[in-house]
Structures are given as structure tokens and as C-alpha cells.
Amino acid sequence: MTGKPRPDVGDAATAPYWEAAARHELMLPRCDRCGLVFFPPRQLCPGCWSDELSWQQVGGGGTVWTFTEVHVPFYDDTWADDVPYVVAVIELDEGPRLLAGIVEADTERLAIGDRVNVVFEDRPERVTLPVFRVVPRLDGGS
Ligand SMILES: [Zn+2]
């Protein structure tokens, strides 16, 4: 489908995030004063309010903090071809939580605490979205 909303990739606070995603890298803002890595990107550190920030590449591993399976498409039929799909809050190993899709999810087995890794989805809306894929469990489950 076309007509999906496109994030504002030109916003000064978030542009480096989207530029990194286009290179298939996950980068988050890091406070140069207190060391906090945070999300979403913003002009000031949420820990100490410093504006001395830089960008750090993160590993892209994390765990499912919570999730939902979407069955009803939003915005009329914009997502009609995509349902059902999974939207989750991922807690990255570096600490920040971010809202993202989980692709190829086995929703019968998906659970809070599952390990995930970032993958990148190059969208027809000319944006690359960081999304996540579940890491198969070592006990034979998925
Ligand atoms: Zn700080």
C-alpha cells in the first residue's frame, strides 16, 4: 500500500537516527556529560539536561519489554495488507526502550523477555525503519 505516514527525517534532533538507519546502523544519542544513552532523540539529555550530546552506534540486541499484535488496520485501509503485525517496546541492551515492529514473529510463541536483534526495513516511503527479529531460543523453541 502507499500513503503511509513518513517520519520527519529532516528534524534536527532525529536526522542522525534516520541517516544511520538508512545505512543499516542503529545509532542513539549519548550524553557527553553523564554518559546516558537515550531514546527518543532530543536536544537535551533527559538525565542531566546537558546539551553536549553525540551519537553512538549500539549493538541492536535487546529484549521484548511488551508487545501487541495488531489486527485492525489504522488510517482506513492504509495497513490493510499488513495485518496482523506485531508492535513492541524493545529494551535495548544499552538501556533505552524503543517502539518498533517485530518482523516474522511467531505470535503463538512470542513472549515478554524474548531476545531480539535489529534488522532494517527499507520502506517504499523512502525511509528505513529499524525493526526487530526474534533470536531463536537455544532450548529448541523459537
Ligand atoms: Zn546527561
Short description:
The chain has 142 residues and is mainly β.
CATH class of the largest domain: Mainly Beta
How does the helix and strand content classify structurally? mainly beta
Structural shape: globular
Poorly predicted parts: none
Q: Order of strands in the sheet with the most strands?
A: 5-4-3-6-7
Q: What are the bound molecules?
A: zinc ion
Question: Which labels suit this protein?
Answer:
2 domains, mainly beta, 7 strands, binds zinc ion, five-stranded antiparallel beta sheet
How do the strands and helices of this protein lay out in sequence?
Layout: H1 15-22, E1 27-31, E2 53-57, E3 61-70, E4 85-92, E5 97-102, E6 115-123, E7 127-134
Antiparallel strand pairs: 1-2, 3-4, 3-6, 4-5, 6-7
Describe this structure in words.
The structure is a single chain. The chain has 142 residues and is mainly beta. It has two domains: 9-58, no CATH class; 59-137, OB fold (Dihydrolipoamide Acetyltransferase, E2P), CATH 2.40.50.840. Helices cover 6% and strands 36% of the residues. The protein has one helix at residues 15-22; strands at 27-31, 53-57, 61-70, 85-92, 97-102, 115-123, 127-134. The strands form two sheets. The chain has a five-stranded antiparallel beta sheet. Strands 1-2 form a two-stranded antiparallel ribbon. It is globular. The mean pLDDT is 91. Bound molecules: zinc ion.
